């Protein structure tokens, strides 16, 4: 039977879908239903569906984000959007993300739903048939040596979506020795990602030989190149008394690769499984564990943890710029301290929350596009800021760790601020530039429009008009924003009471300070300290 997952935030819709047709009589099994995308992914952790029926507008994780996550997990899962009449734009976006079809959930008839499901079932069966044909040819005893067939089969295992039962069946056809003891999988990831391309065949052979030398005491070793920079290793029939030594042997392999081949590898280790049927799951776990180097470090030895990536959705993600920091104004005003605070908070939050890597890379692309948009708005030459001159997707591919991402974002943001400052000095009148620098340094002083006018030897009315003309913001608004940004820094980095912070940024009246802070930052000082501090730390 084909497995179906139903996702909709309305319980009546979920109940209605489950009762609309006789699912099992037509070859379908409902493996669960969920009220949002996050709960759907939790169900998928336990059992992958063949078909997902999902709403779009849902809390926590909406349908569009869920579709993206589902397709990244498996391109073979079919997705049907449960649409309303007003959802056309969303449906179009869902189709771009890989949704296969849609139905109007309010008016769908049993015959329509069944017809759609049967079409999807036929395409799934055809796809499975192609995989089975490849498996048949792979395991045919006439198609090369056992070693060749083993390599082809393991590659198919890594790249296709077999079930554990299919793997066990075709394992027997390879005439390998009977499975006993424990089985597990490793995925070795080479850093940098293009290192194998230097002399890929020889380097891969050398790494394979090292792996066999270091790991063969554990049991039978079979390996296959998975991707350009990855080697999948399957440890079969391991002696029970050797299991406590697995981590030590893998660590020895990492050290040997560095010593003899001068390459840095990270290793992802699956859990142990009894019997050959769990080896496919073991490979999936090893692949997941190998990703932990993104948050920790390259060259590590990582065992699979089911809850390592603790957040699947960016719902509640605090760095939408609107809480505490306006990135565009920060760059326009060349406030490097504020930029550093925001970036430090962003990457501290990412490190702490450990979002799935695909989400983090999406955040990188969002920040990149935002910085580029700011640069274009300031009429700056982006090619002089992003000096890599490489497509964004290539940049993303080379972000192997969160630290790589932070370095890259800081480089872009710093270059943007430097370019903005050069332009500001070249475009602002000297008097305006002087006043901006003065406010940045003397924000705690009693600065008024009158005192500012005297500093540059102009009338109050003229300096007010000129300041607004050149900065697109009034003198008082600019000064207030400078002071509130400094106040936010005090709230974040100190335990000073609000009334003392108010005095430090030039306010004698705590109530007036509180109103001004909320107007600029969107939250009160106490709310900022309570919520903002948690996200910045």
UniProtKB/TrEMBL annotation:
Residues 433-531 form the HTH araC/xylS-type domain. The keyword DNA-binding applies. It holds the Pfam family HTH_18. Coiled coil: none annotated. Keywords: Cytoplasm, DNA-binding, Phosphoprotein, Transcription, Transcription regulation, Two-component regulatory system. SMART domains: HTH_ARAC (SM00342), REC (SM00448). InterPro entries: CheY-like_superfamily, Homeodomain-like_sf, HptR, HTH_AraC, Sig_transdc_resp-reg_receiver, Tscrpt_reg_AraC-type_HTH. The keyword Phosphoprotein applies. It is found in: Cytoplasm. SUPFAM superfamilies: CheY-like, Homeodomain-like. The modification 4-aspartylphosphate is found at residue 55. Residues 3-120 form the Response regulatory domain. PANTHER family: HISTIDINE KINASE-RELATED, TRANSCRIPTIONAL REGULATORY PROTEIN HPTR. This is Two-component system response regulator YesN. The lineage of its organism: Bacteria, Bacillati, Bacillota, Bacilli, Bacillales.
């Amino acid at each position: 039977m084909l497995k179906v997952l139903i996702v909709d935030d309305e319980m009546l819709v979920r109940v209605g879908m489950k009762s609309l047709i006789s699912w099992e009589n037509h070859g379908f099994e409902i493996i669960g239903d969920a009220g949002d995308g996050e709960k759907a992914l939790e169900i998928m952790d336990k059992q992958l569906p063949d078909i997902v029926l999902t709403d779009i507008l849902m809390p926590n994780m909406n349908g569009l984000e869920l579709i993206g996550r589902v397709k990244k997990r498996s391109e073979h899962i079919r997705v049907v959007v449960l649409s309303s009449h007003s959802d056309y734009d969303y449906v179009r976006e869902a189709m771009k993300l890989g949704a296969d079809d849609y139905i109007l959930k309010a008016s769908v008839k049993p015959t329509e739903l069944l017809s759609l499901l049967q079409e999807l079932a036929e395409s799934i069966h055809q796809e499975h048939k192609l995989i089975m044909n490849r498996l048949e040819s792979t395991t045919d005893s006439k198609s090369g040596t056992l070693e060749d067939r083993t390599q082809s089969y393991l590659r198919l295992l890594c790249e296709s979506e077999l079930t554990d039962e299919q793997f066990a069946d075709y394992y027997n056809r390879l005439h390998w020795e009977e499975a006993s003891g424990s089985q597990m999988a490793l995925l070795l990831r080479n850093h940098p990602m293009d290192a194998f391309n230097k002399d890929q065949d020889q380097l891969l052979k050398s790494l394979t030989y090292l792996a066999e030398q270091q790991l063969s005491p554990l049991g039978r070793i079979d390996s296959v190149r998975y991707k350009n920079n990855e080697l999948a290793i399957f440890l079969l029939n391991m002696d029970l008394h050797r299991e406590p030594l697995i981590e030590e042997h893998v660590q020895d392999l990492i050290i040997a690769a560095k010593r003899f081949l001068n390459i840095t590898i990270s290793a992802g280790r699956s859990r142990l499984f009894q019997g050959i049927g769990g080896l496919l799951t073991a490979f999936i776990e090893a692949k997941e564990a190998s990703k932990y180097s993104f948050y920790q470090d390259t060259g590590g030895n990582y065992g699979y943890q089911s809850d390592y990536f603790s957040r699947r959705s960016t719902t509640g993600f605090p760095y939408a710029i609107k809480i505490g920091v306006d990135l565009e104004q920060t760059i326009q005003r060349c406030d490097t301290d504020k930029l550093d605070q925001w970036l430090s908070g962003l990457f501290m939050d990412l490190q702490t929350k450990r979002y799935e890597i695909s989400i983090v890379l999406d955040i990188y692309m969002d920040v990149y596009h935002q910085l580029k948009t700011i640069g274009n708005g300031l009429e700056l030459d982006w090619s002089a800021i992003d000096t890599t001159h490489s497509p964004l997707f290539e940049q993303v591919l080379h972000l192997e760790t969160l630290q790589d991402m932070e370095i890259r974002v800081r480089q872009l943001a710093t270059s943007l601020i430097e370019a903005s400052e050069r332009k500001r000095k070249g475009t602002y009148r000297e008097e305006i530039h002087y006043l901006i620098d003065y406010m940045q340094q003397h924000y705690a002083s009693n600065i008024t429009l009158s005192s500012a006018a005297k500093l540059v030897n102009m009338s109050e009315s003229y300096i007010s008009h000129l300041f607004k003309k050149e900065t697109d913001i009034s003198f008082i608004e600019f000064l207030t924003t400078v002071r509130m940004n400094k106040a936010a820094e005090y709230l974040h980095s100190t335990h000073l009471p609000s009334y003392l912070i108010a005095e430090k940024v030039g306010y004698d009246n705590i109530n007036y300070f509180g109103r001004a802070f909320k107007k600029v930052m969107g939250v009160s000082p106490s709310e900022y300290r309570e919520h903002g501090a948690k996200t910045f730390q």
